[in-house]
Amino acid sequence: MKLIYQVDDKVKFGPLVVFALQQLLAIMTATLVVPIIIGNDMSPAAALFGAGVGTLIYVLFTMRKSPVFLGSSFAFIGSMTAAFAGGVSMSLGYLGLILGAVFAGLVYVVIALIVKFVGVDWINKLMPAVVIGPTVAIIGLSLAGNAVGDILTGGVKVADEAGNLTPVASPVAALCGGLVTLFVTMLCSTYGKKTAKLIPFIFGILAGYAFCLVLTLIGNAADIDAIKLLSFDSFKNLVSGGVSVKTFFAVPSFTFLTAAGGFKELNASYIGTIAAAYIPVAFVVFAEHIADHKNISSIIEKDLLKEPGLHRTLLGDGVGSMVGAFFGGCPNTTYGESIGCVAITKNASVYTIITAACGAIIISFISPFIAFVNSIPSCVMGGVCMALYGFIAVSGLKMIQNVDLNRNKNLFVVSVILIAGIGGLTLNFGSVTITEVACALILGIITNLILKKAPEEE
């Protein structure tokens, strides 16, 4: 892929800030939503801070050679929920979040040490292009349902008698908002000048937001719920207790502050529970770590598993995850949205990632910006994600363009991975869930090994 900015290219300060903001918008919604799902008063702003610090650590370990942002991992949601199971106190639950991230991070550290001494050739043999290509495609395709679900959903929700929140806007109105976002992004990326090509998502999100705002204002004036797409609740909450310093600036509720009181309740049984909830998931996420780095390697046309090396990417991911959870409670992971943003904008400058990480740390203290991000309607982010997830899928398919699919051996490997992944094959062992991506990869590896010595076909 012909990049506009290479990994080590420096960018002028003004454009750099704008490019970094785009990276943040691409990853921010997913990063903020994980603590919201977990509940227990977890702070989305603290999770954003943790993602920023974790990313800086990752960049440090990878010697500024891997342009990827780390964000809150969805794979550990079940593990994080287990930290609060059994009626444990808030302090002990928060301590469990930190301990769990340490356990998961140590898995990465151990694997990194093994890789350091035995190399990565075994990974390339175990996961050649015919295996890793469709697996990367599955990362994008497995998220397709999320993008479509979001693009049909508005941001205004009301509670029914059971307390469940349901959108009030018509799916058609939401779809229009999402398509405005998608089309503006597409047009800027394809027909725009250099600046527009580099920040198509900012233009897309702003256009979609403006469209939803206009419809919502009309809906409020005419009392038409079907076109109310934009919720102002996040802004109202800023001033609900009166205007003060916290309206504009607030220190996030860092996890370690609440966790400090949990040490007096800590016992061996709870530690064992946390270890069992986090360690197996870390091995699952390791598979996705490989796929993500194979993907970004194909985009920047440099094998990151060899330089700076898989051991460094693992250490960066693992240690970054530990530190991120220390502040925000959420283990971090490499984000497909970030990789997709690099692919679409053709901006692989690691300085954009560094600036985005610093921006995440700063923004986590700025209440109005957090409120703005929380107010972005689901349909707008759905429009963005249709492009991001699609590019991830296409990047994976490009990896197999030189694979001989006339051979049944290769056809079976690709077929098994695609069907298992798209079909949503998952396995549950207690609180541990092996995701469809991991299941597809494992089945692909097994199939490839079984058929490895298949004779050449005429």
Topology overview:
Blueprint: H1 13-38, H2 44-61, E1 70-72, H3 77-82, H4 90-118, H5 121-126, H6 129-141, H7 144-151, E2 157-159, E3 165-167, H8 171-191, H9 194-198, H10 200-222, H11 233-238, H12 245-248, H13 255-259, H14 268-300, H15 305-328, E4 332-334, H16 336-345, H17 350-363, H18 367-375, H19 378-398, H20 408-422, E5 427-429, E6 432-434, H21 436-450
Antiparallel strand pairs: 1-4, 2-3, 5-6
Brief overview, please?
The protein is mainly α and 458 residues long.
Q: Please, could you describe this protein's structure?
A:
With 458 residues, this protein is mostly helical. It has one domain (13-127, 144-392). It has helices spanning 13-38, 44-61, 77-82, 90-118, 121-126, 129-141, 144-151, 171-191, 194-198, 200-222, 233-238, 245-248, 255-259, 268-300, 305-328, 336-345, 350-363, 367-375, 378-398, 408-422, 436-450; strands at 70-72, 157-159, 165-167, 332-334, 427-429, 432-434. The strands form 3 sheets. A two-stranded antiparallel ribbon has the order 1-4. A two-stranded antiparallel sheet has the order 2-3. A two-stranded antiparallel ribbon has the order 5-6. Strand 5 (427-429) and strand 6 form a beta hairpin. Helix 4 (90-118) crosses helix 14 (268-300), helix 7 packs antiparallel against helix 19 and helix 20 (408-422) runs antiparallel to helix 21 (436-450). The longest helix has 33 residues, at 268-300. The chain is globular.
